[in-house]
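Researcher: Here's my situation. A collaborator sent me these components and asked whether they could plausibly form a single complex. I don't have experimental data yet, so a predicted model of the whole assembly would be a useful starting point for our discussion.
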Amino acid sequence: MNGNRFGRLFQVTTYGESHGEAMGVTVSGCPAGLELSEEDIQRELDRRKPGQSMITTSRGEPDEVVINSGLQDGYTTGTPIGMVIQNKDARSGKYEPYVTAPRPSHGDFTYSAKFGTRNWGGGGRSSARETVNWVAAGAIAGKILDQHGIQVKAHVNQIGDIEAPPVSFEEMLEHTEENEVRCAHPPTAEKMRERIDQYQQEGDSIGGSIYFEARGVPRGLGAPRFDSFPARLGQAMFSIPATTSVEYGLGKEAREWTGKDRNEDWEFDAEGDPIPEGNKHGGLQGGITTGQPIYGEATWHAPTSIPKQQKTVDWETGEEKEIQVVGRHDPVLPPRAVPVVEAMLSLTILDFMLLGGRINPDRLDGTAGEYDTEYHPSSPDNE
Amino acid sequence: MNGNRFGRLFQVTTYGESHGEAMGVTVSGCPAGLELSEEDIQRELDRRKPGQSMITTSRGEPDEVVINSGLQDGYTTGTPIGMVIQNKDARSGKYEPYVTAPRPSHGDFTYSAKFGTRNWGGGGRSSARETVNWVAAGAIAGKILDQHGIQVKAHVNQIGDIEAPPVSFEEMLEHTEENEVRCAHPPTAEKMRERIDQYQQEGDSIGGSIYFEARGVPRGLGAPRFDSFPARLGQAMFSIPATTSVEYGLGKEAREWTGKDRNEDWEFDAEGDPIPEGNKHGGLQGGITTGQPIYGEATWHAPTSIPKQQKTVDWETGEEKEIQVVGRHDPVLPPRAVPVVEAMLSLTILDFMLLGGRINPDRLDGTAGEYDTEYHPSSPDNE
Amino acid sequence: MNGNRFGRLFQVTTYGESHGEAMGVTVSGCPAGLELSEEDIQRELDRRKPGQSMITTSRGEPDEVVINSGLQDGYTTGTPIGMVIQNKDARSGKYEPYVTAPRPSHGDFTYSAKFGTRNWGGGGRSSARETVNWVAAGAIAGKILDQHGIQVKAHVNQIGDIEAPPVSFEEMLEHTEENEVRCAHPPTAEKMRERIDQYQQEGDSIGGSIYFEARGVPRGLGAPRFDSFPARLGQAMFSIPATTSVEYGLGKEAREWTGKDRNEDWEFDAEGDPIPEGNKHGGLQGGITTGQPIYGEATWHAPTSIPKQQKTVDWETGEEKEIQVVGRHDPVLPPRAVPVVEAMLSLTILDFMLLGGRINPDRLDGTAGEYDTEYHPSSPDNE
Amino acid sequence: MNGNRFGRLFQVTTYGESHGEAMGVTVSGCPAGLELSEEDIQRELDRRKPGQSMITTSRGEPDEVVINSGLQDGYTTGTPIGMVIQNKDARSGKYEPYVTAPRPSHGDFTYSAKFGTRNWGGGGRSSARETVNWVAAGAIAGKILDQHGIQVKAHVNQIGDIEAPPVSFEEMLEHTEENEVRCAHPPTAEKMRERIDQYQQEGDSIGGSIYFEARGVPRGLGAPRFDSFPARLGQAMFSIPATTSVEYGLGKEAREWTGKDRNEDWEFDAEGDPIPEGNKHGGLQGGITTGQPIYGEATWHAPTSIPKQQKTVDWETGEEKEIQVVGRHDPVLPPRAVPVVEAMLSLTILDFMLLGGRINPDRLDGTAGEYDTEYHPSSPDNE
């Protein structure tokens, strides 16, 4: 409704502006008994944080998370988990010229048009800084999925006109984090890096796309139609700032395939269960998971903050203005969006797992720490 | 949650299976004072109904809607509008062979995997027949939007490898309904029709895509991030059966554009308001509407019901089987999906209009009919 | 939001006016595999229906339910269940004088003040006729609860100044349906009946209250605070028209009890589980069920439709008017509200059961009928 | 769903345990342009905070709130407001004996039964400390209501057997905060204080009740049935820990009133609008506000933490135990619950005001501070 909540049973609620006091996220619906520490969250935040390489903004944010609630002796209790990440390197002054003269293609104007005002430092609430909250929540989701044999991975498969060849899931696991571009095909990563450098030197920016995949998701998840798996995945992906396309399976190309070529016969798998002979369907049939890997792709337009001279108008003075967006900005979005995509995919899957009753408390292997507060009923019938 | 509800303030709740007793949809949150009759709904249902041309299924459904509640003397009262559409030409018998032997690439297996059972006649709940409910609800939404100067239109822009050139909104309004393919570019429509005939004769089917556009949507709609306009549009479009990609603005191509080329300077419009110099942004910046036309595209894979010989397995008997999907089926989805896309786009926009407080009761120009039940308070302060 | 939806996972959506075409209710989230027929619903509707005795309205509604979807061979499929009950004995003409001259203490004025109009025949949407939908949905919930060993029962414990002594759950089961007043204490029922007759003869009406109880509800249900069991029970009970108080456990009297007297020591039950030594807590501690019976009470004010001469004003003409509410009305609400209270209590409990993962598909003992569409995966790990 | 969210458009999300790191609350849906500072929140928190008098717990919590987001130059921006209140005086050690031996009539057992574990220090999540979040959110709601001419007030009207006579709204405003008991009838307050002292000296505690009232609420709010005003008020009040009854208008007494005596004729008010001749209906008819004052009452049972010797069982050791609940506790709940009741009533009303489109941005009289970021469209048609 108000844009700061995601998830039906695994509920994520966020707040924060780029240059505000702090970012915050509340996770409720997390099963009890999960071992969880700030380190589990920090590991993922570090993948997303600014200043990690030459192709990211130089803003110096340690992005240190503090967990305020929801734990007992290092294990989740089933009650809400509140997390806060202080903003430490905000320099709002540079944004004064844009207060009433919107930066081209940013959210400055639309936020003011919607609310009649806005927090303007560093883009305020419209900044991608908000995604730090999602990665924090996604880290919890990812840990639970991992204990259920579900793996989620993404990598950058195109930057500008540089396109990576298809890679295996294993290659994604192995190579994605090896380079700053987060492309799992090292030779392509090299070319991408060069292309990014070129645009950065020209004071320009460039678009790109990310391929994502999830393995081990059980069959039967998704509630067609309005809560089908693709519908909720679409909402999740289009929530990420600057996303302009989302697809799964054959995606946009599907329009050129015939039914005969795309249809997949049913076979029996090793256990004697029906399984499609291929996975052109991307793990989804009728809006519900088939048990095959779910895969897809999403596109990000070029960052709109560029140091080129551009034109704008000041709605206060009625004057036209030259504008040059200073600040510390990324020349391309996908490399830092990879952990965000993984977070949103994890949150989407976990939510469906909970709705489907597929989370097994025993796999969380939690104890209640020093004091065993756990209550084991003797009379199962009552449970 | 359960997949049969769409919308936050304009709430649509549906039920029904392809060969069940009836389809039903409840609309709540519709403003009071809208003149509404079954004819308003019927007009749109007729655009979606089966048997309307040679390239649609021959199933003979009149799709006659009955309004059970929510009106007084022909005007809405603000309370829930219940509608029912009886199913009249169901022939479930033909589906018996598929009960435990899933049709290739259909939802048969995933529904059974999710629920442990399913309504199997005609695809049951997984059938696109469900969209009759959406078109009924969308007809109400469309009427309200129309009274607020908002126009929504879609047309088929590609079938297989046959691609239509870009057309204007006016061409869409004029030509879309002129041909069975619902392509607003008549010469291309002709070619599409031929290509469809060719696949149909081969016992095959083919994919395609739809371009959609909305004009007159006011600036300031959308609640970033999880309820941004693109996020809710993505959910809406991916709810439609067989959708495999959704994009807006430059869409997937945005990955090859630089920031400099994609960014749009701000100018003043005739009234002195800031306006972007172009609309490569597709009417959306920062997840919020700019007031420019919203446009995008979505893809549908080829219908999976084809009379070709295919293979499946029977999970009851453990046998492999030959399967030939008989029944009455569409050789291509987009022509009949056009009114569905328009319905989902209308529902999405109206919901945001209501959330943004932009619906003006005075534009609904309703009276309360023969008896003026309208209450006009004399003391506006209390209102 | 719009008042026609109840439940989080077991979702009930309703429509209909007293004198409209039909009443309708959509139930989604019902587990698959429940044997269900129109007779299961009808049995409960007959307990609520008008004209069942001398102390209810004489309106002649058969209240016959039709199930439009959600079943296969007599078993639920997990997809939405749509039900319709036609209105057959509506006589709106009698309500013409009240269109712009609101009946005293009815919802006529507030509905018109809210919406600017209203469906005015028979009270329209404000009529208690709406509860026929709830009883239909509650019949499904009750059947599932029954299969899980949960029993829900209510009876009328006070009418005017005639108060019944406390009765046991067994007495409620045995005696409630024996008399028209639905009081489980037969001698008191007799007195209540006389008192009601007296008011009815005087052209007056009278208030009353209902005691309700649920047995077999497992411990651990409820999500404090805003979704605590009492919070959702409070919402459910106050949804019923004309309810003015709701309480559980010691209720309002609790204000006169000391902590020492109200507190209950913990003991071990037969299975060795902790159990409170008594049940002054009404089955709820910290907003969560203890496993002890949940009990409480709610009050209904006197029906506002009485044939006495009263005064009103006409907002159209500006005149004061004498008014005598003709029509067919109940002289007291609780006797017919008993099945409604049971329905709302059942819906509340079942929703918490689903949220707590306590519904056991095996207890639903469904098969898939003639054709066993059930899919039993061979590879449980994937499930 | 998970118990930590309240409100449909004005959304409150909370976290925190009694002895956890911090309490936190996120408010989204707050209109832009409201002048807001930490002092506005602090003023209300100070009314609820522990240690404020001899009849409250001696726990020393300053309850200092920090606002982390949602403001620009001291005015709200329409985006989420994140607030944190650190816990400073937690002494969990004292709770060790109760980890597996639940305190009588507390939430210790039910939380462990629900989650299999719990945060046990100071009652953890089950502690009334959570209500500090509600009072923080309610302070924002109250400020907006105040600017719309709506006043909300509560006072303690009964403690044990000491009952206050009815008082006027003006007396509530004048006297409630004058005494520690928060009873607006000073002579009764004195007696209540003595009675509380007596129980406190005996190592016992006592129940009580609160009368609440709201003035200036416009007619037409509430969405019958499941979102009627009483239904949502019931949910709100029963969310408060230890509430055992809620009523409005004549409440429980309504069962002894006849229709003739309770019904209220309609008259014209000074402006010529229909108005009921009295307010026995408590400001609500048909579940919708009439414009008359809304009033009601709720009951709290005695605090369960008492230093008396009691009995419990240890589910770990299987032993019976003597237990004496040490810690710092209130001998009676209503005095500190008064600001909590006002907060929940304010949140409920504001939510309905927003749903009804009744919040007037102009009354918020905000400017955008030093920099006027406000955007005033020149073309109203587009707005």
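Model: Some features of this prediction you could bring to your collaborator: The longest strand of chain B covers residues 151-159. Residues 123 and 305 of chain B are 10 Å apart (CA to CA).
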